[in-house]
Each structure stands twice: as structure tokens, then as C-alpha cells.
Automatic annotation (TrEMBL):
Monomer. Associates with 30S ribosomal subunit, binds 16S rRNA. It is an enzyme of class 3 (hydrolase). PROSITE patterns: ENGC_GTPASE, G_CP. Zn(2+) binds at C292, C297, H299, C305. Residues 116-267 form the EngC GTPase domain. The gene is rsgA. This is Small ribosomal subunit biogenesis GTPase RsgA. One of several proteins that assist in the late maturation steps of the functional core of the 30S ribosomal subunit. Helps release RbfA from mature subunits. May play a role in the assembly of ribosomal proteins into the subunit. Circularly permuted GTPase that catalyzes slow GTP hydrolysis, GTPase activity is stimulated by the 30S ribosomal subunit. Belongs to the TRAFAC class YlqF/YawG GTPase family. RsgA subfamily. One of its GO terms (molecular function) is GTP binding. One of its GO terms (cellular component) is cytoplasm.
Amino acid sequence: MTYDLSLLGWTESQAAELPHGTIPARVARVDRGAAEVIADDGQHHVKYGARVRRSSAEDPVMLPCVGDWAALRWLDEGRYELDAVLPRRTSFVRGGVGRTSRGGLSADGQGQVLAANVDIVFVAEPSMHATDFADLARIERLVALAWESGATPVVLITKSDLFENGLEDLLADVRVAAPGVDVHAVSSQSGEGVQLLHGYLEGSRTAVVLGPSGAGKSTLVNALAGDGVMETQLVRAGDGRGRHTTVHRELIPLPGGGLIIDTPGIRRVGLFGMTDGVDMVFADIDALAGACRFADCGHDGEPGCAVLAAVEGGELPERRLTSWRKLQREAAWMASRTDARLRKEQQNKWKIIHKEMRRSGRNRP
Ligand SMILES: Nc1nc2c(ncn2[C@@H]2O[C@H](COP(=O)(O)OP(=O)(O)OP(=O)(O)O)[C@@H](O)[C@H]2O)c(=O)[nH]1
Ligand SMILES: [Zn+2]
């Protein structure tokens, strides 16, 4: 079976990044020490070569992840190995996750890439959730995360069929919460807005869908993916019938073109190094802050604060300032954790150096 790599998002401009003697393949799924990849000659299960093992032992961020473009090298023993990960255009990094584990960071505190080369982040927020309406603060947080990854966010107010009146008002509020971001109402049930999403994936772009449990993410992905015809889309030649593979892919080609990455990890992304993203989501507050009397104004009662003035004047919803404060605190907290880790690493390095100095001192004749 042969595949047309351009349908997986490959562009010839990336060819220059391939090490000599390797072929490109996209990572559809990873398992410990090995990956499922799709190359133009088919799907392969490949182990990591020495170069990848070495660099990822130093920094887990270098581990292959779903969405990566990899360079495959053919070995004499008759199989490919994953020789290198090509530079990523965008990446979702989590700080070793686990809001559950050790208060936000994993034991080693190092980052892990959850998905790479994502172009579009659909932020799904239900128009109605149980008895509640869309949660603007959650949208802000996920939009910040999307910007931080390098991808372009698009906000989807899902289950729009549940909303009878006032959907336009809700969308207007959401547009204020996500300045510069496209906002659409969609319903997998009625089909409203679903076709429109294909437009974002033109040119074989890659998307993820983020959002709370129950937002309708899986239903939407299914609506976009149709009924399993995607496999045939990639077939360029061969017998055309193809064999069905049982491997569950986390990189899903859509029949209308484009791809969706859907993994358990990407559904639980946390905040990690999010300061730039927060600034972009709160571009309005950032702009107002330029007029505050003090350059480091915390917009917390300082004299001459333009942000508080805008809240009082009704130009800036107070909720937005509260949301900004919360995300600032979280981002600062994450940053301080990262700093603490760096300090600890430095200390450990010095400990080793001192130990070696002592040892060499002792061995001196
Ligand atoms: N009314 C309505 N219900 C929907 C729509 N889309 C999904 N649902 C329902 O909402 C529920 C949750 O949908 P899922 O697609 O499983 O939500 P999810 O975001 O994938 O949830 P997790 O898998 O928990 O992350 C299901 O009962 C769906 O049938 C919609 O457009 N309109
Ligand atoms: Zn201020």
C-alpha cells in the first residue's frame, strides 16, 4: 500500500531537514520506545535509533510524539528505525502533567510533548452544560494554551441545538473573551457549523479538539471523520482494497482532507510556561495596561490604573480582569516551579563537580 504524504501534511520544504539516506514518515501513535508511523510505502512499527534514545534520555521533550515528522533509516537487517525527529512547527508541552501528581509537575518536573505540528486548535465549549452556560474562563484558558503551542485557536460553542434564544448574545460574550479568534456555533446533532470546520483543515492541516468532558468532542470528531472511509483517501496506488489495520491511530485523516489528533493526554493538557499565551488572550488588558501610571501596575488599586478605570467605565468586563488575575497567578506559580527545578539542577551539578574535585584531591599522591 502506498500513501500520498502530502495528504498527511508533508511539504517539500521539509525535505531539506531530512538527514542523508532517510525517508519521511508521520508519527500516528507512540508506545514505549517505538512508534507507529506512516511513510509513503505504508505503515510501520519502528524502534528508536541511538540518536533519538540519547537525546530523549537527556530531555524527554525530544521523545517522538504523535504528529511528529520523523526520519526513517533502513537497516541492513531489513527494517526501518526512527533515526531523527524533524524540527517541530508547533508543540503542546505539558509539565510532566499530573495535576494529580505532586501538585502539577511530575516527579522529574520535565516537560513532555503531547502532540506536535498541530495547526488548528478547536476549543470546544458547550453552549449549555447541565444547567450552566458556556464557561468563558475555561475558554480563555484553553485559547491561551493553544496560542502557547504555536497553533491557531478557533472557538466552537458546541451543542448549539440546545440553545433556543440568546445564542447570538452568548457568541458576542465569547468573542470578547477571545479577541482575534474565530468563534462558531456548532451542533453535531443538527449539523450546524460542522461543514465549515473542514475549511480550517484545507491543505492537509492538522487539528486537535480541546474542551471539558461532555463538550461533544468525540461526537464532533466522528461527524468530521465520517464512517471510516479515511483510510481509502490516503491510498494512492496498490490494490485499492487495502487491508484493514487494527492499530488504533491517534492521528486521524479526515475524508474531507486534513487530520485530527485525538489522544487521552491532549485531553488533559495543563498549564505550562503559559505567560506568552496569557498575554495574547488578554491583549485588551495588555493594551490598557500601557496607559497605567506604573509600568509594573498590578491593576489592583494602584493610583492611575487604566485597567481599573476601564472596568469602572464599563469598557472592560470585570469578569475578564478576575480571569486574567487567576491565569497570571497560575502562570507565575508554574514559572516559579520551573525556576525551582532549574536551581535544583544547578545545585546537583555543583554537587557532582565538588565530589569529583574532592575525589581527585584524595587520589592525588
Ligand atoms: N444536543 C446535543 N448533544 C450532543 C451534541 N454533541 C454531543 N452531544 C452529546 O453530549 C454527550 C457528550 O458527548 P461526547 O462527544 O462524548 O463528549 P466529549 O467531549 O468527547 O466527552 P469526553 O469523552 O468525556 O471528553 C453525548 O451524550 C453526546 O450524545 C450536540 O451537538 N447536541
Ligand atoms: Zn493598572
